[in-house]
Specification:
Layout lengths: L4 E3 L3 E4 L6 E6 L20 E6 L16 H15 L6 E6 L1 H13 L7 E7 L18 H11 L13 H17 L12 E6 L7 H4 L10 E6 L10 H12 L1
Parallel strand pairs: 3-4, 3-5, 5-6, 6-7, 7-8
Antiparallel strand pairs: 1-2, 2-4
Length: 250
């Protein structure tokens, strides 16, 4: 039997009748929901996988990108509350920029009547910095962004040198990096759910020691899982990562 896709403006996934939990996935800067297109095939039937599609990319290319974290997190939270009508318990997973977005959405979802948030899972990024720890930065230039991308994703960065593709994908990358440069929550909100932090042992953006910083945003404990690899360790270790996440949800 073919199970139909679930597709809304903000959310993409595969329906899982009888699921007991839903995993909502948040992509990295410049990324889209397609980053998680096959995760549903790697999870047990008790888990439904939904991916967030940020505006300004892929099939939402004509829409303006979010300019602030507040704008993005508010819109995603609204989508989760209105486009997913049931009360299936939610866990949030974010990679890189997606970790910060997932954290902000988790803050907004806590305490919403009829919605149960069970866990925040973050990857490839330290916890958010407040202004006195790290003041907001100017938005990086395109050359600075591309230099950073080549460090983080040496295997995939060539796409930005393609003369036909670069004008299509650079605007969302530029917007996301600018959003992150300005993002500094006024204070850290301690979530009342456990947090799991994952990362690569050779990630130039997030040292293994930085993963423990997420203990500052939970009252319910942090566990850490380190994989072999760089910032995009989750590509070669996809099956293992998804299995590890699933073990926390069912």
């Amino acid at each position: 039997m073919t199970v139909p896709d679930s597709r809304t403006r903000w959310l993409r996934g595969v329906r899982a009748p009888g699921a007991k939990a839903r995993l909502v996935c948040f992509p990295h800067a410049g990324g889209g929901a397609v980053s998680f297109h096959d995760w549903a095939t790697l999870t047990p039937p008790e888990i439904e996988v939904v991916s967030v599609q940020y505006p300004g990319r892929q099939d939402r290319l004509a829409e303006p990108c979010a300019t602030t974290m507040e704008e993005l997190a508010d819109a995603i939270t609204t989508a989760l509350l209105h486009e997913l009508a049931d009360d299936l318990p939610l866990a949030l997973f974010g990679h890189s920029m997606g970790s910060a977005v997932a954290y902000e959405v988790a803050r907004r979802l806590e305490g919403v009547p009829g919605r149960t948030l069970t866990r925040l899972i973050v990857s490839g990024r330290p916890r958010p910095r407040v202004p006195h720890e790290q003041p907001p930065c100017p938005a990086p230039t395109d050359s600075e962004i591309l230099d950073r991308v080549r460090i983080l994703d040496p295997d995939g960065a060539d796409v930005y040198d393609h003369p036909d593709l670069r004008p299509l994908i650079m605007p969302s990358l530029r917007a996301d990096f600018g959003l992150l440069a300005a993002y500094r929550p006024t204070r850290l909100h301690r979530l009342g759910v456990p947090v799991t932090a994952c990362g690569g042992d050779r990630d130039p953006a997030c040292a293994v020691a930085d993963l423990s910083s997420w203990s500052d945003v939970t009252t319910e404990g942090l566990d850490v899982r380190v994989f072999e690899g760089n910032h995009f360790y989750l590509n070669p270790w996809k099956r293992e990562l998804v299995g590890f996440i699933a073990s926390h949800l069912v």
